[in-house]
From TrEMBL:
Name of the protein described by the UniProt record: DUF2189 domain-containing protein
Lineage, broadest ranks: Bacteria, Pseudomonadati, Pseudomonadota, Gammaproteobacteria, Alteromonadales
Keywords per UniProt: Membrane, Transmembrane, Transmembrane helix
Biological source species: Pseudoalteromonas aurantia 208
Residues forming coiled coils: none
Record's keyword annotation contains Membrane: yes
Source taxon at top rank: Bacteria
Keyword Membrane found: yes
Amino acid sequence: MPASPSLDKNTEFARCLESNKIAALAPFHWLALAFKDISRAPILSLIYGLVFTIIPASIMYLVYEAGTHLVILPAAVAFALIGPAFASGLYDVAWELEKGHKPTLGHSLHSMFRNPAGEWGFAILLMVIMIVWMRLAALIHALYPNVPNPTFEQLSAFLTLGSIVGGLLMAAVFAISAFTPQIMMERRVDIMTAVISSIHAVKMNAPAMFVWGALIVTLVLLGFATGTAGFIVIMPLLSYASWHGYIAIIKTKKARGYE
């Protein structure tokens, strides 16, 4: 009986796309290129910026209505989970600019359905992670001191555990979502290939990804500091920069440049 041919797991199942090694400060260059994209497509950038502003504005309203700061941490993580799933339209605008085309709202909206199985699967994955986080946040809340005006020492266990769990979860989501939406939109690959490739790219470029993550956190905090008005510019800026990061890191068969 002839032996069955061995399977190449790198091609038969979820593949891992090759990545380039980039400089640690490369994310600053991505932001500079993103500003150019905004200037080339100002109306579309404004439209998406307004849409993205609604999400953090809703979080701020939730905090105000709840009358407690306890919803800030889970809401912030939820924002980090939801954001990448709705950035496909802006990735399409950047992609159209890369190809020398004139981007349109209709084309960018259609991009959300270019790889429906992968993109909606990714959205569901983020939703599951968000639900897990909300359950963990509820459990962590049990450590909150049941006394009025608790001291920092009394809050230490609650803050420490919440920060560790939230930080680990956000780091995992960052690695998963850094390049997954861009890969699935352009290459029509399965979700596992995109996720594994994104994690590998982040791991391979840890210094640059640390800088990129710090820039994202800084700009998001700036957005909240401006009463969410800053997100009108910040979210398109981060989305376009993410596309430039994808171009710089994920290898293609033919060299591409988008300056």
